[in-house]
Amino acid sequence: MSKKKKSTSVSDFLLNLSIQRKWFNDKKQLPLKKEHKDLHKIIHVLFNRELGCFPNLVDPQNYNDKIQWLKLFDQDKLNVQCSDKLGLRDYVTSVLGDGHLPEVYAQADSLDAIDFSSLPKSFVLKTNHDSGTVFLVRDKDSYDNSKANTKITKSLKRVYGQEKGEWCYTFVKPKVFAEEFIGDVSDDSPPPDFKFHCSKGKVKWLQYIFDRANTPKEVICNEHGEPLNISFDHNMIPSTEFVKPAEWNDLITAAEKLSEPFKYVRVDLYLISGNVFVGELTFFPLKGCYKGEGQEKLGELLEFDLKTFKDIYAP
Description:
This protein is 32% helix and 18% strand. The protein is built from 8 helices and 10 strands. A hairpin with a 2-residue loop joins β9 and β10. The chain is of the alpha+beta class. α1 packs across α2 and α3 crosses α8 (294-301). It folds into 3 domains: 3-58; 61-100 and 189-315, D-amino Acid Aminotransferase, Chain A, domain 1 (2-Layer Sandwich); 103-181, no CATH class. The radius of gyration is 21 Å and the shape is globular.
């Protein structure tokens, strides 16, 4: 055995030993059952790899720790439905009524099964079960779909989120769909994202993201739309360029209504020509592995009941 392989084996052994000890310590203070053990390990391997430490599940204070707690103890059928970009639509309509979703033109189990001739000139291609598999088609007559075909085909074959402890995606049947292109087709950058971080029907803060065609910029605002001097996502440029729109109350109302059943959820909204559109609901943003002081400060704002627990979801 080479020195490198031997070193890796020793490191893995020591990591597994540390996680095993953590399991027994956590089990003394939390209602962990044998059904939690695999997920508990996945979370700790992830956290160690990304952040070089283990999450505090017994008394979580920062944002990252609270997201890991939620992965283990807040599993529900509604989380699964709302993690599915197609299943989410029924929930949105039941809560907000009609008019808050882009039209879906077609959906299928594979990209080959979608009849592109029936689609309008501009549309968006997405998969329903993962993050980031999105293609903006501004003009289908000049669009080369080979890149999309490769990525979408690969995405449809995998179970998303397992290695990150994002359990709910395991139960979502992968599909590809084409939906309405909202916003200005001639604009290289997608419309700004209003990402409302909410708990039990209350907005805790807004993560406003814009200029995605370049390096995305991020503004963190409080529930009143006032920019805070906080940087949250280390992949984005922090900014304070935010003007509260006239439709602010409409955005807040939509986010709070959609988040009411959940201890925590990020509600992603768009504002198009004065109308509020729902993008998705996200329960584990960036897998709960943000870097920097921002996640500590925002974790203090994220308050929810840590004394009630749900069992592992098993349909």
